[in-house]
Design goal:
By secondary structure, the chain is α/β, with parallel strands linked by helices. About 15% of the residues lie in helices and about 25% in strands. The chain contains 2 helices and 7 strands. Bound molecules: guanosine-5'-monophosphate (5GP).
């Protein structure tokens, strides 16, 4: 999921390609969803700005998210992709903020639990800034 998951996706795909027994063929595709707009609070209104190009029907699909907070974005995407009948649908997130869930999105793989704060860096932005930070930081600290 762009743009926040860009860095983690690249690192993940690179690792999957280099570890022994990893998938020999990985197709990377991007979907762009917006639920925050210019704010640092979720509006709860998920909008798709760009859909996938590839067909996921019958495929093993892993959603790569940057951060799950309320879970609304991931829940929306899981429903959107399930309707296309993938053979398998798994979800991973670099960061999880499990404090204020509003939707029951299933997460199969979690990198780290983040604090209950707005974080930036390593792909995560605030109004398009700070994505390029080579570390994850709490905004305003
Ligand atoms: P949810 O629907 O789970 O509340 O929203 C998840 C999306 O909101 C993430 O993909 C990300 O774009 C944005 N988001 C949620 N929390 C944060 C945060 O702490 N920092 C940043 N940069 N984005 C966040």
């Amino acid at each position: 999921m762009l743009k926040g998951a860009l860095y983690v996706t690249v690192d993940l795909v690179r690792t999957l390609c280099t570890i022994g027994g990893g998938p020999s063929e990985i197709v990377v595709d991007y979907i762009v969803l917006s639920s925050y707009g210019q704010n640092s609070r979720s509006s709860g209104d998920v909008r798709m700005l760009k859909d996938l190009k590839s067909c996921v029907t019958g495929k093993h699909v892993v959603i790569v998210e940057d951060i799950v907070d309320h879970g609304l974005t991931l829940d929306w995407l899981q429903k959107h992709l399930r309707a296309r009948n993938p053979a398998l649908l798994k979800s991973c997130t670099l960061l999880d903020k499990p404090y204020h869930r509003r939707a029951n999105a299933r997460i199969d793989y979690v990198g780290m639990t983040a604090p209950d704060a707005f974080v930036v860096g390593y792909g995560l932005d605030h109004q398009e800034r700070y994505r390029n930070l080579p570390f994850i930081a709490q905004l305003g600290h």
